[in-house]
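Protocol step 4 of 6.
Sequence for DEDD exonuclease domain-containing protein (Paractinoplanes ovalisporus) entered exactly as in the expression construct, tag removed. Do not edit the line below.
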Amino acid sequence: MAQPAYVQGTLDTLLSADGSVDPAALSLADTTFVVLDLETTGGAADGAGITEIGAVKVRSGVEQGVFATLVNPGERLPPFITVLTGITEAMLAPAPPIETVLPSLLEFLRGAVLVAHNAPYDVGFLKAACARHGYQWPNPRVLDTAAVARRALTRDEVPNRKLGTLAQFFHATVQPTHRALDDARATVDVLHGLIERLGSFRVHTLGDAIEFAKAVTPTQRRQRHLADDLPHVPGVYVFRAADDRPLYVGTSKDIKTRVRSYFTASEKRARISEMLGAATRVEAVECAHPLEAEVRELRLIAAHSPPYNRRSKYPERVVWLKLTTEAYPRLSVVRSLADDDAAYLGPFSSRRTAELAAAGVYDAVPLRQCGHKLSVRTPTPACALAELGRCPAPCEHKITPEDYATTAALPFRNAIHGDPSQVVDALMERIEALSDKRRYEEAAVLRSRLIALLRATVRMQRLSALTRLTEIVAARRDTVGGWEITVVRHGRLAAAATSPPREHPRPTLDAARMTAETVLPGRGPVPAASAEETERILAWLERPDTRLVETSGDWVSPVRGAARFTSLLNRAEAAASGKDSSVRSSVTDRSDDARSLRL
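Step 5 output, structure tokens:
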């Protein structure tokens, strides 16, 4: 039987269900420890093999109790174990088996922190014994004195971290003898010596000691004081350099707990380690509720472009796919919206994605792909695409502007503002034809174009439905009985507040509306905020527990809009990522028109 996995406790285990700090973890001086040692037959932790248990319960340096017993392992005792420990088979024969000892031992451990030297070994044997004999392992917090010593003591002080070496270094009153109780008493003195040493590392609580025992870098250990004065509130935190420059911006439902996690072993990102070395303070921005925190984080990142943030730094770097207003319109990738009657699709985060969506349009409708300015009077020579039958050749006047607008431009306009089925159907037919011919690579290219186009149209129609509203007020219950209140104007968060528990939320809501930011309408699907901010707000509004309180108009989307292709989009994305090899979705509102995307 394999040895059960041992997992060192983390800071989250120090929090109770309501998120409050466990009183037993506030101070090492007020923590009850059970210092334990086992002697075994030397085999694997399979639920047997324990020959002796010794445990000492201590609190504030005072011994509270002792647990010691020999244990009949139920197997032969190897001679070298007898030589090492002095325990013989004759001594173990009348001893109780482990299943008899476990109930008393588990009761002795109740409510205490388990301490052992090389704790994974001892914990592994006890967990295996509990599993074998039907006892529930209480999963106590565990502190490993060997791991703490590796962090707290240098090689110049002790050549190794063996229990005998540490007991001698700390002048233990009892030296280890390879007998359980003696070794446990020696570990008690080692523990007290290490706790004194931990004070110089600003480690005063059980949680800090557990994290200290892990592979925390010197920079993390040195800088952990930056989290000392932060509040336990939702909001935004900003790591700042000596010259007050923002280095990194983040958000959390609990600022203090989140910032503390940067100084634990769980934080392994190289760039964050570099950032911690340059930070001199952490600024906390308290927010009314998590949505406001998310939005403020986006705005701060956009405003300051912190060097250690990777996402959301340049929301203005977006592009749009524009259908020009010429006699023979064409698609053009532009960086901003003009005050014209042109049709725009976007925003796209990169030019490559916009061009991928444009290629999908070209595959579905006969829009011209050349960049020439065409005259309705003077024809110009046709390009190779016209000769291949992939362009209606408006340059040679083989199609009238009216027919071109109907067959080429109108399907694109419908796709972005209403029903994209004409474009989607054309792409699906081509994908299925290529799949039937086993030309899967070409079909996969079309699939990626369909994904880019459909994702952009679904996103734009969702954004437009919200941003055209002058105001929308919504609320949802928080965890303590109050209401999280949000005022949104043209897709921008204009105000946020939280009403107190057991009070009517109307006064808070009215105050939020009166003090909300004035937001003027503008062009496009995101006239007043970044697309990412509006999408965060949409996700919050669409939660099942969010209530719409007031709206300035109807919050609606086109009846036959792009949203009805969401299932197709999800399946196509799953197929593209390799999570699903067969994508089947309806591309019309009739089930008998279901198409199969076999890629």
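Step 6, annotate. The chain has 20 helices and 17 strands.
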